Amino acid sequence: MIASQAELTQQLLNSGLWISSKVNGVFGWGQGFETVISALDSRITQFSEADAATSINFPPILDRSILTRTGYLHSFPELCGSVHSFCGSEHEHQALLTAVEGDADWSPHVKQTDVALTPAVCYPLYPTLSGTLPEDGVLYSLSSYVFRHEPSLDPARLQAFRMRENVRLGNQAQVVAWRQLWMDRALSLLTSLELDVELDIATDPFFGRGGKMMKANQKQDEGKFEILCPITSAEEPTAIASFNYHQSKFSSVFEILLADGELAHSACIGFGLERCALALFSTHGMALETWPAAVRQELGL
Ligand code: ATP
Ligand code: ZN
Question: Structure pTM?
């Protein structure tokens, strides 16, 4: 029997794999959980290294103009994490403290800063690539914490989590073939971990009425695939990895060109590391030492 969302959360907390905070979707991770996250990360790194992908680590904040220029606030306004800070005088500080001490809303006393929380690891990459790419395009391996404002009781729906991405820019044929290569690799990796996975076409959670049209277009263009795995429900399996083809969406905003002067195409593939680890714990149990030997061997545990 598959554990419910509440049961799985309780099992993770009881076994010290997760540490509770008072906020839904925000947890600390114990050592056993981190061991699995690192093992998954290393396994993905092996593929990135075989591709000679350039590795970059960005912090979990980015220039907020990247979000406005790429239409993030149009598509996903409810997920966005703006960063605000106090910028006032000593007099204004008193007003802030009065609000804080009265347990009142202190947002009128802070101002928006130049940064926002990173919603997906590939966003900070694109502006660094403005200009003309080398003949064969480029390949990157990225990793960061990301933020999504989606408080939930589902242990697989976190507000802060680690996303491990690989990104390819090149011509259409190169980018589409590369995404297919990663779908094949990811399926074979996750199957070797004895997870019950399936690949399916998917859409991003575009906001509002306009979002319906965007979802329909994305589906028609086969813009997104996901690998799904039952974590707390067999009927509604959870997306643990995503494979996105953006056509020239990002390269047109940041003027990223191919050697022949055409706009580059881009794709990114992302593993949600906590969701992959959760899939393993929910499938094989809370005690690493009782996991199937082949799974532990595959992860080097
Ligand atoms: P969903 O459809 O579940 O909301 P998404 O389409 O927004 O996910 P992507 O933007 O493709 O997800 O994110 C890449 C990967 O990050 C997903 O495949 C998933 O593994 C992971 N992920 C997405 N949202 C969350 C979340 N709230 N908590 C934990 N992991 C997540
Ligand atoms: Zn991406």
Answer: 0.97
